[in-house]
Here is the input.
Amino acid sequence: MIQEEGPLRDLSEIRQMMERSSRFLSLSGLSGVFAGTVALLGAAAAWKFLQGTESMIGQAFVDKPYGFYQFFVVNFGGVLLLSIVGGLYFTNRRARQQGWKLWDATSKRLLINMAIPLATGAIFCYFLLFRAPELIASCTLVFYGMSLLNASKYTHSDVRTLGILELILGILCGWFATTGTSLLFWALGFGVLHILYGIIMYRKYGA
Here is the structure.
């Protein structure tokens, strides 16, 4: 048994090296918790702002064309910016702790595969802004889920599960959009799911 420990350890190290060369493993669970918390705060602010509107989303675009646009650009733009900054901070910290490079060929592939669906979704959401604004929340969840699925082959498999759940919520959000629940689904997708995902990632991989 003692003689086998050396070869087994060497095989384990080789496997880890091969996995790191093909997958971006520096994603931090804390970044998910942080992003989810920020998203819930943004959703709470939006809920407070929308109180008193008839259909929460669709009618608000009609009744409050100027203040509504300005508020949501600042609110959700701030959520996105803080989530990105927090994600970079915690991911960079984990990479340093593990002695890994944050920016390499694998992280580039991950970023590109996430960026394509996200950029497409952003353009599509801009079109919806003037034609079907009540579907914007659904659109963001669906395209975000697609970006996670597209990028999951370059990182932890848990990301694929998160992407599928985001897609399901996005479809449900689109189905119930006229009932005034769009913001609730958005909060569940970007807030609650991110926090749960972050906790699971932290317990499985640490940091």
Residues 65-98 form the longest helix (34 residues). The radius of gyration is 20 Å. The CA atoms of residues 13 and 19 lie 10 Å apart.
